[in-house]
Amino acid sequence: MTTISSAAPSAAASSAAASRAGSGTSAATSIPVALDPQGPPVPAGTAAASRRRELASFLRSRRERISPEQVGLPPGRRRRTPGLRREEVAQLAAVGVTWYTWLEQAREIQVSGQVADAIARALMLDRTERRHLFTLAGTADPHPDLDCPGLSPSLLTMLGRLEPLPAAVINSRYDVVAHNRTYGRLVTDLDAMPDEDRNIMWLAFTDPQWRERMLDREENMRLMAAKFRASMAQHLADPAWKALLKRLEQASPEFRAAWERHEVIQPDSHVKRYLNPLVGLLAFDFTHLWLGPQSGPRLTTYTPADELTRERLDRLYAAVLAEEQRRPAAGVAAGG
User: Is residue 164 reached through a cis peptide bond, with omega within 30 degrees of 0 on the bond before it?
Assistant: First the structure.
């Protein structure tokens, strides 16, 4: 639990924190902006400047709608303007007051994904507002809620109707956007994992339970890395793709080795085998239903490859339903 002081940080602390938060560098690196809080006007006529002005206006509007009491701060003395003060938002987001002031003045400074996330939480943004903030900031959301343009109520209904067959919506980055109950317990309890870890590549290369229970693991990992490389050709400048690639390279020597082979493979069909902790070995054929361009999200459905798997799948589904009766839960999970 974080305790927030009502006292504003000192100017020196704010300036140092501003440099670290805005640039992601050490305290010795300064943000190349004039210290005069009035400063020169933001140059007009460029897309970047227009986006900074829009971001500044958006942040001010969101800040002014929140009362101190809503975020656990004392009301303090009489306020000249509605909502939170800039220094209060800076405190809530753990960034420097000077840096946040520059942000609301549309200064030419960089906003990291982590800092934008902290600001979004401090301003209590909803899902649409959060997406708008990251778009204006020009940075990747570290917790993107795994949005999928093709995810609709009717599709979620379809996922539920497909039970007991395991089914999930997976995007081309291998994020699990939504899944039904059987898929959620196919290998381990997917719902118990953080949103950012619900990525098949990440699980296959780094999660001990997935590594143990996904059979034919080495071949599957090689194929996934090759398909990921083929898909990434269309997203080379996308911050979210680059962030996932960096995360995998840092966490998994096996991924680095597979990535360095420069193999490219389009999605195909083959039998997938899993060692389920409740019912044992399961073997599946699977079908992709593309929800847009073939490089985009897809609905993947697993069908038993043999009669033994069909019987065990029925047992798994019965176990999931029995557990749900003991602990009520949603039938279909969507990312976020």
Answer: yes
Cα dihedral 152, 239, 91, 104 in deg (nearest 10)? -90
3-35 pLDDT, tens digit per residue, is 233 333 333 333 433 333 343 333 333 333 333
- Give the amino acid at 200: I
Report the alpha-carbon distance of residue 128 to residue 62 in Å, rounded.
13
The 10s digit of each residue's pLDDT in 273-291 is 999 999 999 999 999 888 7
Asked if 107 and 33 touch (Cβ cutoff 8 Å), the reply is: yes
Task: Burial-class residue 201 by CB neighbours within 10 Å (0-12, 13-18, 19+).
Answer: buried
Buried b (16+ CB within 10 A) or exposed e, 126-142: eeeebbbbbebbebbbb
Label residue 209 by pLDDT band (50, 70, 90): very high
Find, among 113, 326, 72, 117, the residue nearest to 239 by Cα: 113
Structure tokens at 195: 């949103």
Strand order in the sheet with 298-304: 272-276, 280-290, 298-304, 167-170, 176-180, 332-334
Tokens, residue 152: 């609709």
Strand 176-180 to strand 272-276: parallel, antiparallel, or no bridges (unpaired)? unpaired
Secondary structure (DSSP) of 241-294: HHHHHHHHHHH-HHHHHHHTTT---------EEEEETTTEEEEEEEEEEESSST
Number of DSSP helices (H) and strands (E) in the chain, helices first: 14, 6
- Work out the average pLDDT over 146-159: 72
Of 137, 189, 175, nearest in space to 335 by CA? 175
